Amino acid sequence: MGAMERVISQMSYDMRRKRYLGKSKKQSRNPQHEIHHRAKSTSGRQVYMPVLALGGGNAKKVIGILLIAIGVILILTRCFGGSRKDAVKDINEKKVVYETQTSYENFIQDFNIEEEDLKVLLDLSLRYKQDYAHTLGVWAVESYKGGSMAQVKQCLRQYRPENEIDDFGMYDAATKLYKQFIYDIRKFPLKIRKGYTYENGWKQSRTYNGNRLHYGIDIMSDTNESGKIEVISMTDGIVENVGWNETGGYRVGIRSPGGAYFYYAHLDDYPSHLQKGDRIDAGDLLGMMGDTGYGTEGTRGKFPVHLHIGIAVKTKDQVEFWINPYALLKYTEDK
Fold first, then answer.
1. 267: burial class by Cβ within 10 Å (0-12, 13-18, 19+)?
2. Alpha carbon 27 to chain centroid distance?
3. Is the pLDDT of residue 247 over 80?
């Protein structure tokens, strides 16, 4: 029986008992148990009003009811007070999970890994006979925690990281994300290896069509001449978009076999035969580096000649989750 049921049962018993005792004492009632005091009515006449004395059966009844009421209040306060505390605790825990997941998503999106570390992780995959996406997933979890490469190696020997971070599903999230592109990248997006420069301009601010972040890397032409540098596909895949885009100018979008979307923008032009649905091999010509975009079709010269390269993957919540391609460009440039 719960606390509330016990209180209600006790109240019912006390009331029945008091009614019984009241009937048995009715005939021997002591008049002194009532005190009369004088008061004036609205007509000015004096009247007598009975008032219960603080003693006898009536006083006990009042005290008993008050004690029961206090007990009920205490029980309710304890029950509902605990519920409020539990609710606040639950909200705080969910807030921690959300903030951790959001922070981690930004971490794996920024993909701030050195070119040499990519090579080390590939070597570790081969040494421990592990899937490369799995190795990158371990790196993401351990690096987010501030771990060293030695800790990554330890986790690889155990096959998967068993730690508090993985309770949020972060290892699986990173592995599924990296699988969409890491096996598909085979080429640097320019046919030449000179006459250009680039830096890590990921998430820099842009103002065209409102303030926004730059989800990609710009490879700049040293001579600033449009139509001089050939742009090639980094992967095999299928042409998903081709033609004009207000922000990206003439652009080509390729869906790789793993599911990632490779976006090549600001082209001077593109092959006239290229159409949606065409199959592309890594190294195929996609167009020439240019300066198109930021307006209606044919708009040129709003910025220096360059190639914008972006890589987007699909997540549980987003159709386009952009990944910083900087480390991948450095890696493929040296291959």
1. buried
2. 77
3. yes
Other beta carbons within 10 angstroms of residue 252's beta carbon come to 24
Tell me how many helices (H) and strands (E) the chain has.
7, 14
Q: What are phi and psi of 328, to 5 degrees?
A: -70, -35
DSSP class of residue 32 equals G
Q: Which two tokens stand for residue 114?
A: 């050195």
Question: Measuring CA to CA, how many Å separate 78 from each of 3, 9, 74, 91?
Answer: 11, 19, 6, 20
More confident call, 172 vs 30? 172
Q: What pLDDT, on a 0 to 100 scale, did the predictor assign at position 7?
A: 46
Tell me the residue length of the chain. Answer: 335
* Torsions phi, psi for 303 (to 5 deg): -160, 165
Instruction: Spell out the residues 6+ positions from residue 239 whose beta carbon is closer than 8 angstroms to its own.
Output: 252, 253, 254, 274, 275, 276, 277, 278, 279, 280
In the chain, the domains with their CATH numbers are: 3-87 (no CATH), 103-179 (no CATH), 196-333 (2.70.70.10)
Residue 135 gets which letter from DSSP? Answer: H
Q: What is the pLDDT of residues 200-220, one digit of tens each?
A: 999 999 999 899 999 999 999
Q: At what angle do helices 56-110 and 132-144 cross, to 10 degrees?
A: 130
Task: Name residues whose C-beta falls within 8 Å of residue 96's C-beta, 6 or more positions apart in sequence.
Answer: none
User: What are the angstrom distances between the C-alpha of 59 and each of 18, 54, 238, 298, 322?
Assistant: 12, 5, 91, 96, 77
CB 234 within 8 A of CB 189: yes
